[in-house]
Amino acid sequence: MERILPLVVGNWKMNGHFADECRIRALLCSLEPLSLRADVIICPPATLIRSFSSLVKESGVAIGAQDCHTALSGPYTGDISSSMLVDAGAKAVILGHSERRIAHGETSHIVRKKAKIAHQAGLTAIICIGESEAERVRGEGARFVVDQLRASLPDMPDCCWSRLVIAYEPVWAIGTGDVPAPAELEEVHSMIREELQSLSLEYGRKTRILYGGSVRSSNVSALLSMKNVDGALVGGASLQVNELLGILSFYAS
Ligand code: PGA
Known about the structure:
Elements: E1 7-11, H1 21-31, E2 39-43, H2 49-56, E3 61-65, H3 82-88, E4 92-95, H4 98-103, H5 108-121, E5 124-129, H6 133-137, H7 141-152, E6 164-168, H8 182-199, H9 201-204, E7 208-212, H10 220-224, E8 231-234, H11 241-248
Parallel strand pairs: 1-2, 1-8, 2-3, 3-4, 4-5, 5-6, 6-7, 7-8
Helix pairs in contact: 1-2, 1-11, 5-7, 7-8
2-phosphoglycolic acid binds near residues 213 and 215.
């Protein structure tokens, strides 16, 4: 079977200014000798997409965004469309992050519409799903995640599957230092894989399923060596070049 090329996505959240170009430069310099067996996407705030995109040209690192609107243009003050992100140089967009689902009331229905419009603009849609602490305690975590996946996925023509990435991010693991036990992680990731394969056997088995939530260089090998974990969505640690390099080194040959 064809091997999946892993992907590591750095989510800078609402952190970073123009002066932080130096972090991207440092990352690119350090990555050069590593010969990574993984794709890398850095998602800074929207204000930095254009300048970072010109820095990473021809480097193997891509720049992504953290959200987009459900429409391509229109009277939506303060919003950014997927085509504007492409225009600024983005190759991917994170959608349905729990911080947006919680703080901005984003439902899976909205996420699904955003994914569709992101695909239309030519972006890779990184769709985030994950259960809360309450659902986990009730023993309903895995079921919740699969239902959320089903509701967040757009109908996709075959050509869009290669631009779909799923990120499993348990809400209780984000920024807390807690991570799922290996068996727990493997169970959820294999349920996600089964669900994707039920939609398309051919494409579902090749879709990258990332893990996100307190990924650090110190826990990366335990998390990323699990079956059906095809990379990571990294928040806080992606802001520190050395930490991110420590994580990426897992895929260095
Ligand atoms: P964290 O965040 O790595 O800081 O836990 C992950 C995320 O929210 O994407």
